[in-house]
């Protein structure tokens, strides 16, 4: 099974101990919103790699919010689940984006 980046990130940042069907459904719905009918006709199943970081933040946020909605979120060291619950959708996306790892390579 191919898992799009963001599922594990959302679970980690929410503090969920397992990934539920609802969390996977939230990730799938979010990811599917980035695929056009034209892309599907062409056999394209996933968005372009050039947009992976943007979409990963959104998928991670959808997964984290689903964990909160299902009372699976236990929080992480810098964020209590109540704080996560009170965040807007855009604040959740921003939070996930800030927590993403950015590779830095030596010249």
TrEMBL record:
<dbReference type="GO" id="GO:0004471">
    <property type="term" value="F:malate dehydrogenase (decarboxylating) (NAD+) activity"/>
</dbReference>
<dbReference type="InterPro" id="IPR036291">
    <property type="entry name" value="NAD(P)-bd_dom_sf"/>
</dbReference>
<dbReference type="GO" id="GO:0005739">
    <property type="term" value="C:mitochondrion"/>
</dbReference>
<dbReference type="Pfam" id="PF03949">
    <property type="entry name" value="Malic_M"/>
</dbReference>
<dbReference type="InterPro" id="IPR012302">
    <property type="entry name" value="Malic_NAD-bd"/>
</dbReference>
<feature type="domain" description="Malic enzyme NAD-binding">
    <location>
        <begin position="1"/>
        <end position="68"/>
    </location>
</feature>
<dbReference type="GO" id="GO:0006108">
    <property type="term" value="P:malate metabolic process"/>
</dbReference>
<dbReference type="GO" id="GO:0051287">
    <property type="term" value="F:NAD binding"/>
</dbReference>
<protein>
    <recommendedName>
        <fullName>Malic enzyme NAD-binding domain-containing protein</fullName>
    </recommendedName>
</protein>
